[in-house]
Amino acid sequence: MSGIGRASVLIGAGTVVSRVTGLLRSVVLVAAIGSVGSRAGDAFGLANQLPNIVYAIISAGLLSAVVVPQIVKAAAHSDGGSAFVSKLFTLGTVVLLATATLATIGAPWLVQLYGPEFAPDQIALATAFAYWCLPQILFYGLYALVGEALNARRVYGPFTWAPIVNNIVSIAGFVVFIVVFGGPVTEVADWTPGMIALLAGTATGGIVLQAIVLLLFWRRADLPVRPDFRWRGVGLNHIGQLAGWTFLMVIAGQIAGLVQSRVLSGASGSGPATLASQNAWLLFMLPYSIIVLSIGTPYFTQLSEHASAGRDDEVRGDIARSIRTLGLFIVVATAALAAAAVPASRIFTNSAEQAHQAAPVLLCFLVSLIPLSVLFVIQRTFYAYDDTRTPFYFTLVQAALVIVTALIASAVAPVEQLAAAIALGQSISSTVQVVIATWLLDRRLGGIGTASWTLALGRFALAAIPAGLAGYGGYLLLGGDTGWTVSGPLLGAVGAGIIGLVVLAVYIGLLALLRAPELGPALTLARRVLPPRG
């Protein structure tokens, strides 16, 4: 526990700083280009989303699913895995460079594909942004490849801390944009080539530096790596077989995302659309990143080692412990964000009215926060057993449901509620996915203690419901929909923080009354993050 605890704290601390600076980055970006109802903002949001789509395929798909377990296994080779990693890095760099080049050439087609409802001038602006943004694919990929390899070597910190450099560069560049050109610049006709180059060039420059910083830490892995184009003989065929299912799985998810993007493009200029949904997702992912990734990543490395050694009983224990630990934190985070939905949304909007429009999008995403934390553990357990085919099947179900719900939303939801309807459909689809995945893993391992950790999640929810109501009461006491918590982005953040503290205090008190056995270890882990007294 001490090793996992130290790693979790290191990752968690880095993730907190990274996410806070990421929030500041988004606040400054909204000040520069707007959010709800901004056609220029949606154009940039779509263009900057394109390299992230490829990054999701590379990181969430191929690397997390395949590379970490294989590097753990390769460590047993006589050279410690050096030959394997050298060939892997060389192949990865070649593929990334080719992908980035082809994507940049195809920028006009990609923009038209993802934003068919954009007006012609908006498509032209988004395409100009995309030419600057799509080269990020190469550097996102290098960052993911090196970072996951470092995680597999139990070097957790740099992968988490490197994005801070990206955020600082982006904040500085966006501030320069505001100083030079003013803001928010929301109308497409007001944009010039110089404005496009400064905004999108800053975004790409931050990603480049993020990758370079991470590369500087490779020596900590204590694994010599050199270019090696001889890609046969060290198991890359096996990786290809595993990655084939993972690739199909992520492609299914991206097809679903494509349908969502195409539907959502029709709401641009009329209410929350592309950029507002991305900002709501950023808020949604804040607790997921801080809690799930910081605690879950070290567990995944340990779980991979136990699975590789055939110690199924220890794997079952890893699953139950990680879900209970993640659940205790993620349940209260869900309650806190739900209670503070409007002030939190004000962080990424330019008026109280826009915050009220954006808050339902966040609330609809939050429906799946707890299920997704469970999925993190369940899905990666399949990966630890080199099973990427089963996750493909349950993800295919989820992707199909996302597509169906997005099409239903386009048919029945008012345009100003379209983003919220799409978010709700995604949450419902993810919840169904988790149920199927849990059932399949339980059958495979002959039981994974589902009753014990489900009971724990129920206990956490029992404490979180009154805690969330107390937090919402605090929001009303602070003025509610017309109070100071929605009067500005900074005050929105302060108000959300106060509401969150109320929820947390009530939650901890109720868990103590319920004598929750997970509370003590969780508080010990939390104290590791806090600065020492005195």
Key attributes of the depicted protein:
mainly alpha; disordered C terminus; single chain; 534 residues
Whole-number average pLDDT? 85
Our Rg estimate from Cα atoms comes to 23 Å
Helix content: over 70%
The number of domains is 1
Helix and strand content put the structural class at mainly alpha
What letter string, H or E per element, gives the SSE order? HHHHHHHHHHHHHHHHHHHH
Largest sheet entry: none
The tally of strands reads 0
Oligomer: single chain
User: Looking at the structure, what is the overall shape?
Assistant: globular
Work out the helix count. Answer: 20
Q: Poorly predicted ranges (pLDDT <50, ≥5 residues)?
A: 529-534
Main location: membrane
Protein name: Putative peptidoglycan lipid II flippase
Transmembrane segments: 7-33, 53-76, 88-111, 123-146, 158-183, 195-218, 239-260, 280-301, 326-345, 357-378, 390-412, 418-441, 453-478, 490-514
Membrane topology: Multi-pass membrane protein
Task: Tell me what you see in this structure.
The protein is globular. Helix 6 (136-152) packs parallel to helix 9 (193-215), helix 12 runs parallel beside helix 18 (450-477) and helix 15 (369-384) runs parallel beside helix 17 (418-445). The chain has helices spanning 2-33, 39-74, 82-105, 107-114, 120-133, 136-152, 157-161, 163-181, 193-215, 236-264, 274-308, 312-339, 341-346, 352-366, 369-384, 389-412, 418-445, 450-477, 489-513, 519-529. By secondary structure, it is an all-alpha fold. The longest helix has 36 residues, at 39-74. It has one domain. It contains 20 helices and no strands. Mean pLDDT is 85; it is low at 529-534.
